Amino acid sequence: MAEDTQSTSDAATDAASDAAVRRADDLFDQAGQRLGSFAAQTRMRLQALAAQSAQAAQGAANRTAQAMNRATTDDGAQADQAEGSAWSASGAAPEPMQRAEVLVDQAGQRLSVLGQATNQRLQVLFAHLKEEGEDIWAEAQNIRRPDTRIQ
User: What pTM, to 2 d.p., does this model score?
Assistant: First the structure.
């Protein structure tokens, strides 16, 4: 009789540990899927950010080249005055050093805006990374200490 009670107790313990192992496997699978999904989304975000940065840099380079072309021709200088740009209002073409300073200032402003946008996006990205890491850590702790699990 005592032997039957012990074997029943052992069977119940085995069933409970099998259920716990299955549950832990499922949680690890879910964590792996989440991590893979997060990595894929991060990769896509970084690719989009790189493409956008390259596009913005190409646009800035095109605008700089156009400004340099306008600056080297007298017609360009007159067109810039009509547009109210940084060229002097005297009617004469600006000095080459002044043109270079204006172009460098414009490029610096564009790079500053691009840097700020990149900084903001990276902050959001790292916040998401931190949150996912904390979620994975909490799930691991929950699996590790099942007696403190909130039901």
Answer: 0.35
